[in-house]
């Protein structure tokens, strides 16, 4: 089993990252380099989270082995002798041989840092650029990132000059490398605490509120009102941009040098707008013979960028609106079925997508009613209590992990108790649950936050390239300080435990933070205590209230604006529901129409054929011509009447003055 666990987790994490990226990204429409770069960034960050527990168990085994091999008299002080018995010091099932983990962490860490600080920012500007050629996009990306890269180079250059001039500093390359790592982790820890403080409170609270009857439905109504406003704004913005494209397409003729740029812009427009505008190929006048002013290439680049953004936003709002409608209809069905006496879940609308037969066989209407109306609220309440308990443990450990005598961090207590018995399964499970919960609190906040329309992770393949790359940057910057914080909570970091023991392979790659004592002994220890203040602010929704005061409508139960938006969203959902009901009723009437009169026409046709065969047996040869002539004309009449009946569509409204039976109206005429 040596190294098998590492290989299995590498494969599993790859498919996990691929699944999440497929949910948010669009493999068919987005550029392959964007997909590959984002997948690599997500994969490396998830891989660090899943592999770190194996590093902890391997380190504990190596400590045990060193303690067994060295007696107290022979100890040179490099390691602390734990004096365990040889029977207890056995190799864990997931043991990773020496030399593999340092190389693995070094490759993973420096690859993620290269992505987050160099490649992904450049690709962001490249993906958002409106250039018409690769060279133009690269030029735009370099110009936009010149300030970004120049700032870091200026700070690093000033630091090198200060070190070179000051005789008190004698830094080597390893120390400079450690300082760079410490600077990156400091920036990441600053953002990590902000996101962690929000997630520790919001995740348990969201599950608890999800168990309340009517809460999700009211919040869905609120989202519907906001999304309708955004949807109308996106449609209006798209109309304005398409009007500019139309004017540019009409002014720049087929023989203009910039016509290729206009054609590239037209390809990015929706199909209905392309058909409406078309190519202006009917005017064969040379462009230089006219005195009209033409747009420059720079203005076309700007217009191209606006077209890409407006089309993506319009498509995203349309898809989100349909998804929100399905969610609202389903929640309304849950509210109606709660008082059902038959205890079978009844849907107002049938699912538009074909259901899996296996799921349909086991997930019957009765099972669905028991889950949605009885079991699901209690399951969410129990899960919320468990998550809240984990949050309290994390907050307590963040405030007390610097204390080593006595050990107050609960995570450190759990790991040390398991280390005494060398229960590696328990150690790995405890480490995995701890870092997994921390990752969920941080990463879920990254998926939830929205910076206007510039950064927004939308599910169902509606996330743009800029947001995908930005999320990869955030993950790569947050994961290393997250892992260091986890090692500090469990006292596996020698900087926190103040023990001269063998460090983990991950900590050895980070280097000794003693080079910067004010960061190792100050910022890394006391700054995570701010998570308490952030949790209190999140619990009382201070950030939500501030955004609401600034004009950004947020869902708040005691706000008059929230009540108005809920009523507006409820009316919008009711309107869409009536519209869909009319569509289904119209389809049902058409189906019944075809089934009723299609069968009657078939029986009429069979009766005519049977009559022809019966009369032909008693007729002479010279009387067959008029009979066949009559039969052909009668068949033509029947075919015409069948086509008319099939083409006719019933009216989609009810009125007393209109007769629903077409046969009676035909006889009346």
Can you give a write-up of this model?
It is a multi-pass membrane protein. Residues 576-669 are annotated as: Disordered. This is LMBD2 protein. Residues 224-251 form a coiled coil. It is a single chain. The longest helix is centred in the last third of the chain and has 57 residues, at 560-616. Helices cover 72% and strands 1% of the residues. Helix 2 (32-69) runs antiparallel to helix 3 and helix 20 (560-616) packs antiparallel against helix 21 (624-647). The protein has a domain at 1-68 and 90-215 and 357-561. A hairpin with a 3-residue loop joins strand 1 and strand 2. The protein is an all-alpha fold.
List low-confidence stretches. Answer: 73-87, 614-669
Q: Indicate the structural class.
A: mainly alpha
The residue-averaged pLDDT reads 81
Helical residue percent? over 70%
Number of helices: 22
Strand order of the largest sheet: 1-2
Rg over CA atoms, rounded to whole Å, is 35 Å
Shape: globular
Series of H and E elements: HHHHHHHHHHHHHEEHHHHHHHHH
Main β sheet profile: 2 strands, antiparallel
Oligomer: single chain
The termini sit apart by 88 Å
- The count of DSSP E runs of length 2 or more, i.e. the number of strands, is 2
Q: Determine the strand fraction and express it as a percent band.
A: under 5%
